[in-house]
Amino acid sequence: MVGVNEISRLGARLHALTHVFDPPLGAGNGPSFVVKDLIDVAGIPTGGGGVVPVDPNPVRHAACVQSLLDAGWQAVAKTHTVELAYGGWGTNRAVGAPWNPWDAQVHRIPGGSSSGSAVSVAAGLCDLGLGTDTGGSIRMPASACGIVGLKPGRGLVPLDGVHDLAPSLDTVGTLARSVDVAARGLEIIARGGSRGGFSASSAMALETRGWAVAALSLESLGAVDADVAVAYVEAIEQLRGAGVSVRFVTSPRPLEDYFAPNGILISGEGWRIRGAHIEANRAVMDPWVVKRFEIGRDISDADLAAAQARRQADQAEFHAWLGGFRATVSPTTPMGAPPIDEVEEQGSAFSRFTRAANYLDLPAASLPCGLSSDGVPMGFQIMANPADETSMVALAATYERVSGWNDRRPDLSGFAT
Length: 417
Description:
Distance between the termini: 21 Å
Order of helices and strands: HEEHEHEHEEHHEHHEHHHEHEEH
């Protein structure tokens, strides 16, 4: 395990960490993990990415943290997040944004909102990162930082001690450099969930040869950077080479059709939970986060009920179509990580392909699938059928074995000073 001094030094240079545990938390000597600062660690303020914490003194660890500690893992730090988890780029104008470790010269987005956890994993500060995902907040930073991100379906992982963004969408998952570590972490944090757990070893051992997988056509995905398109097609060919039966298809609706409905739920539910906090602290908050939440102020209870009814209909339609396949695949994001000063905060283009999994309640993974011409990572997304994390992990492991991208690491020499 990386020493506390190195974690502190590099974590500070990357602006990834909010608190380093010296010594690490936990009585075991197992793998190390970091905790997104929207998840409680007893006695440590849960900052939620802001100046004013969402809980200044949690009395107990979140269930997912406690499960890892009980399994002998060691918590080494808490990590920066987009304020209140509402943003996909990874920007934070309240307390600063982490630095994507793949470029020491240009401050590029780390992806959000689990930005610091992804940066910590990619930089080798820990074995596993805990993140939350409401519209892609595990998968987008995994894609941007060149690591694995696993988002389970709802109910697998208990949310006790995890601060809400949108309760009908929120999930907790894992980030790691390999599918194996991410899956083993997911198995542990699933203990106590409402769905009876998950076996990483069973999923990793599955033979996926002959499985039918739906690849969403580039035409149905809309605008995608050329580098992403090339990497996506290559990833499909690699899966085919591993014996998976992948064919290009058109889904009932483009993934982007679920973007706005997901946003209504986030802002509407989010304002009801965080409105009082925002009204009291807006002067010291990220102004773009405030703007996103304020959209929810004008969403009525009737609007939310209508959005949930539409969601149920959309889920029924998509689930029926996806039931003919073990999973569907797409790029994780339509582009690589841009410089942070080029981000258009008015939109959320980075989450165009990720929000669907939350809205439709599908387990989803992001795997590294290449580097763009700018030298930054790109991600390959796998979305499985409802509650089928096993197939998601099995396909992720198959792709990892043939892709060759999980062995790539960022050059950290530029962060030496």
